[in-house]
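Field notebook, page 190. I keep forgetting to write these up properly, so this time I am using the form the group agreed on. The chain and the ligand, iron/sulfur cluster, are recorded exactly as supplied. Prediction of the bound pose follows.
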Amino acid sequence: MIWLGSGSRRSTMVSPTSSTLHTAYDSKIEGNVILTRVDAAINWMRKNSLWPMPMGLACCAIELMATASSRFDISRFGMEVMRFSPRQADVLIVSGTVTYKMALAVKRIWDQMPEPKWCVAMGACASSGGMYRSYAVLQGIDRLIPVDVYISGCPPRPEALIEGLMELQKKVEREESTMAQKKVYFDAIS
Ligand code: SF4
């Protein structure tokens, strides 16, 4: 458990066993103290700084680009930092028709993104192949990589993408502790 102080007074981070424990009960600084858990603080920071990796594959990508424009302003959610390097991105936004020719390239980019990472399937094509029931088109990106949020529409409006990203924020907020997420790794080294 931690206390995070803020405001005009000096910030503090103390453990409950610390000799500065009494500062949390000082009525003069009470308004500047937040009581929380490390996991909640980490999830709060993650959900408000999701950096998208745009994967524009067809017409839906135009709506994705519009989402970053001043009219819709994705930066209100801390997501304006579109990264074109998978190593710096948290959210893969697959927008457009995923052909078999492109599918393995999308998978490779997903594999290159560091954990924790999330995927949004934007539009009918990315979610299910859309109207292309064809030998050349993958019938949904979830056949290759796990999808966290599906957004319907052909194409979805930028508002729909923003709503989908807000749903993703709710999901990130509820995620298990970092220890639980990495249980396999911790078990392997213990
Ligand atoms: S869902 Fe519609 S708009 Fe989006 S890529 Fe497919 S055909 Fe184009």
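OBSERVATIONS:
- The helical segments are 38-47, 60-67, 100-112, 123-128, 158-173, 178-181, 183-189.
- The first strand starts at residue 2 and ends at 5.
FOLLOW-UP: compare against the apo run.
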